[in-house]
Hints:
Radius of gyration: 13 Å
CATH class: Mainly Alpha
Mean pLDDT: 92
Number of strands: 4
Low-confidence stretches: none
Order of helices and strands: HEHHEHHEEHH
Shape: globular
CATH superfamily: Winged helix-like DNA-binding domain superfamily/Winged helix DNA-binding domain
Number of domains: 1
Largest sheet: 2 strands, parallel
Structural class: mainly alpha
CATH topology: Arc Repressor Mutant, subunit A
Helix content: 40-55%
Amino acid sequence: MPDLNFYDKVYQVVRLIPPGRVTSYGAIANFLGTKGSARMVGYAMQACGAADPPVPAHRVVNSAGLLSGKFHFGGDLMEQLLASEGVKVENDKVVDFKKVFWNPEDTMAGF
């Protein structure tokens, strides 16, 4: 990977999450070789609003599939964005989480 700061590395990974799929803060941290830094991935998601190109932060949830970053989007925007991609959400939790989970470890070997 080029010489990027942690947030930029997170953004590169998140931009690769396919529409209709989600991943977790921890899966991104593990992929980047920083196991245990899921909270830092969350901070990166909070700070991505002005990133160019845009970062689809709505596709990043916690390890249980909960929309833990929902309040940063305001209202139900995170849920609406996921629904527009075909991801079902009930009670702020992704339905069929394991089915729609995208693991960067499985799909990005050699990133």
